[in-house]
Every structure is written in C-alpha cells, then in structure tokens.
Amino acid sequence: MEKALAELERVQTQILQRISKLELSCSSLDLSIPGHHSLPSPNAICDTESRLSAILRKNCVNDFSFKKVPTNYYDSPLEARRDALAAASIDHLCKSIVLVNTQAPSNVIDCSDRNNSKYYVVVVQYTARFNAETVKNFLYSLNDGKIAKKKFNLRLAPEETSVKLTGFEHNAVTCIGMKTDIPVILDEAIVKLHPDFFWLGGGEINLKLGIRTSEFINFVKPFIVSCSGT
C-alpha cells in the first residue's frame, strides 16, 4: 500500500512539473492573431503626432500641444469646440485652407517662388470671413506691380489637390509637415490674439494642434496679411 502511494505521489509530482513547464512556455509565446493588433489606448500617441512633434522640436518650437477631439467635433458649435480644446476663446480656433491661383501665368506651376506661387496655405479664424481680394492685392504689391493684378485670382483648391499637396485630408490640414513646401499666409487677426496661443488642424481629423503664435511665426515664416473680416 505504501509503495502504491509513493508511486502515485511520484506521478503527481511529474504531472505538476510538466504543467509548470507548459505554463512557462506559453507565457513566452506571442499569441496574437496574425494581421490583428490590439486597440491603442485612448491616450496613445499616434504616428502623426509623433512625426509633427519631432518636426516642431527640431525647429525650436517648444510651446505646443496636441489634443484629440471627439468624432462629433465638427458637428458641434464653436463654443463646444473651444471647451474640448480648453482654448482661450472661439477666436483662437483656426483653420488652414489651400488656395490655388487660377489665373497664374502658364510658367507658374508649383511653389518654388513663394512670392508668386501657384498655391498658398492661408490660416484664418473660424469666426472670421476670409477676403481673397486682400490677398490678391498683397501679392500684387509683393511683386512690385511687375505682374498684372489680373494674374492673381485665389480660389479654394479642389480637395484632391489639397490632399496631394499637403498629405492631409479635409479638416486635418496643418502647415506643419506638409508634403509640399507651400508658402503660408497668416491672417493678421491671429497675431493680435491674447493670449498668443491658437489652435489649428493637427494632421488628422480628430487631432488638433495648439501652438504659441510667436514660435509658429519664427518657424513657418508666413506672410502676415490682414485678410479677413467679421
């Protein structure tokens, strides 16, 4: 009887050892399903944010912030958007729009000449009304009147053109990290904001970028033009 109990105890010990080895082996295996990835946490930093943050820091921009917004952000009034970003006011909510000069001379096909570019990105407030005529007059003066005023006619670029040039889709356009080095026009009203920290697109629809105005200007070097009304 004692011999049988000893044998049983030996077998049980072997079984427990084998189970321990199997558990140890399984813990080191990657059991994820091929082609599937775990969902990122809500606060996970996306690739776009990492890329743009690196660009900003490399260019001595330190006072900036990215914030993710809810999916109904653009269905909400400006006051709700202000609250979602903790912005100073609705006047601090801005957008970047890509414009095309539809009357540019045939030899002006790209952005190589920032004074006479085929395309421009204009940053304006959501609360303001963009005035294309003031940009037209500014570009005419910028070129010392050597280019006929009728050769400047700024219009909203088609969405597919905007995406191709910037790499960002509608409601995600930002001046930082664009595929093409498009010259930027910053509305003078934004420069006059207090505090001098405004919000604009962050490269993804649900991602917004807040940035110190002075640092934005030092890095982007935009033309500062009074190009809006209320």
UniProtKB/TrEMBL annotation:
GO MF term set: aminoacyl-tRNA deacylase activity
Organism: Fagus sylvatica (Beechnut)
Domain of life: Eukaryota
YbaK/aminoacyl-tRNA synthetase-associated domain span: 92-217
InterPro entries: YbaK/aa-tRNA-synt-asso_dom_sf (IPR036754), YbaK/aa-tRNA-synth-assoc-dom (IPR007214)
Protein name: YbaK/aminoacyl-tRNA synthetase-associated domain-containing protein
Coiled-coil ranges from the UniProt annotation: none
SUPFAM superfamilies found in the cross-reference section: YbaK/ProRS associated domain (SSF55826)
